[in-house]
Amino acid sequence: MFLAEGYKSVVEFIDSSYQVEGIYHTAPFDPKMLNLSRNINLYAISATEMQKISGLKTPQDVIAVIAIPQWPKPGNNNLKEKFSIVLDGVQDPGNMGTIIRTADWFGITDIICSTDTVDAYNPKVVQASMGSLSRVRVHYTELATALPKMNLPVFGAMLDGGVIYKTDFGNEGLLLMGNEGNGIRPGLQKLITVAVTIPRVGKAESLNVGIATALFCSE
Amino acid sequence: MFLAEGYKSVVEFIDSSYQVEGIYHTAPFDPKMLNLSRNINLYAISATEMQKISGLKTPQDVIAVIAIPQWPKPGNNNLKEKFSIVLDGVQDPGNMGTIIRTADWFGITDIICSTDTVDAYNPKVVQASMGSLSRVRVHYTELATALPKMNLPVFGAMLDGGVIYKTDFGNEGLLLMGNEGNGIRPGLQKLITVAVTIPRVGKAESLNVGIATALFCSE
Q1: Residue A147 has what pLDDT?
Q2: Inter-chain residue contact A204 with B105, CB threshold 8 Å
Q3: What's the pLDDT score for residue B59?
Q4: What digits encode the pLDDT tens for the residues A165-189?
Q5: A23, A42 in Cβ contact below 8 A?
Q6: pLDDT tens digits for B12-45?
Q7: How large is the greatest C-alpha to C-alpha distance in chain A, in angstroms?
Q8: Identical fold at B2-66 and B76-218?
Q9: Mean pLDDT over residues A84-107, rounded?
Q10: In the structure, what pLDDT confidence band is assigned to residue A134 with cuts at 50, 70 and 90?
Q11: Where are the domains of chain A?
Q12: Which among B105, B109, B208 has the least Cβ separation from residue A200?
């Protein structure tokens, strides 16, 4: 199970295919606002109880307990003729949440993560994804064995690749982004079919991985 | 004064025009690593003292106390023939830090903020900027009176503007980004000369402001 906190986020999961197991709210919140068409258990709780449940410093007045979904395994059959994001060891929950939100903006429906990537159901990730987690499938798998089977071009974010603005992305592929500090691990670098670079004009050592992912999605 | 924490960040400020007032380090850290060419006061302190000074949960072994700089007022004389970022009420320190880092990557040297924008010298902003604050000038001013005097095109991030990929940005201008929840306030919207939109393909309600800023910089 995982938690979604706050009215907006809760509503987005209610309107999704996710299995909402229960909704907990404090007294001032009127559950009619949720417009429940599904039969979901509602529990009125005290502010102290909400404080104990919440992962936020300032808890909101409604929280949902939701089952972690099991998605069909990502593969060549369901990733063809579209773009998906692949994350190799992204660690920061804020980055992960922003990447999910950005994917949703650009209509990307699948994010495939190495097993050591931060948990997408971590409360901070759910919060930062702003409800977009309800529309984006996040998978965890052994990338080194899974990627070759997908039989798709792998566009890897590297510091020494071709200029992103001149890259022909075609109409399908995997956008492979690396860990915040170390980038893409060597074992995966060799699976890259097109190394792509966001040209640097100034002096920052690197771009934030959420920013780099967004620029890939945009291009 | 403000604090820069950690070896990398401290070194970037030492190598900048900033006035470093003092450097505090715990015992295992060797100040020779700093390669000080300037005469800066060094203080060896205990881990407990570092814990008290630091704004981080896990303090690093070196911290610098630096004077907040006074930059020349941004205006038409020093913003011509380049792009600058204008922030109207951005609140989140992580977003602010990422925007500074992104500006630095794209060679943007000036960020002009409304007076209610988060303080760029907030420890969380300094941390998220990854040293880029040492190379980017952040100004605070009353935007409604300052912007017209700059006599530059104002490209405003709006939900109903022209498509960003078809926008002719020319060779100078201000990239105006709004608050996380409310966007650009109405009083400033009327100063926009070109309203620009990042087209949405999926269903996310909005993009993170750091992401949107990066896409503007990239274009």
Answers
A1: 97
A2: yes
A3: 92
A4: 999 999 999 999 999 999 999 999 9
A5: yes
A6: 999 999 999 999 999 989 988 888 877 899 999 9
A7: 57
A8: no
A9: 98
A10: very high
A11: 2-66, 76-218
A12: B105
Calpha distance B17→B130 (Å, rounded): 17
Residues of A in contact with B171 (CB under 8 A): none
Taking the C-alpha atoms of residue B204 and residue B110, their distance in angstroms, rounded to an integer, is: 30
Section A85-106 average pLDDT: 98
Size (chain B), residues: 219
Q: Would you call A106 and B202 a contact, using CB atoms and an 8 Å cutoff?
A: yes
Q: Which two tokens stand for residue A4?
A: 């979604």
Chain B residues in contact with A215 (beta carbon < 8 A): 214-215, 218
> What is the rounded CA–CA span in Å between residue B68 and residue B134?
11
CATH architecture of the domain with range A2-66: 2-Layer Sandwich (3.30)
SS3 A166: helix
Mean pLDDT (whole number) for A105-124: 97
DSSP one-letter string for chain B: -EEEESHHHHHHHHTSSS-EEEEEE-TT--GGGG---S---EEE--HHHHHHH-SSSS--SEEEEEPPP-PPPP-HHHHTTSEEEEEES---HHHHHHHHHHHHHTT--EEEEETTSPPTTSHHHHHHTTTGGGTSEEEEE-HHHHHHHH---EEEEEEEEEEGGG---TT-EEEEEEBTTTBS-HHHHTT-SEEEE----S--S---HHHHHHHHHH-
CB contact under 8 A, B106 and A206: no
Residues facing residue B173 across a β-bridge: B83
Instruction: Supply A103's token pair.
Output: 């994917």
Q: Looking at domain B76-218, what is its CATH homologous superfamily?
A: SPOUT methyltransferase, trefoil knot domain (3.40.1280.10)
Phi, psi angle pair for A50, to nearest 5°: -60, -45
* Residues of chain B contacting residue A98, judged by C-beta atoms under 8 Å apart: 208, 210-211
Q: Which helix (H) or strand (E) holds A66?
A: strand A62-66
Give this prediction's pTM.
Answer: 0.94
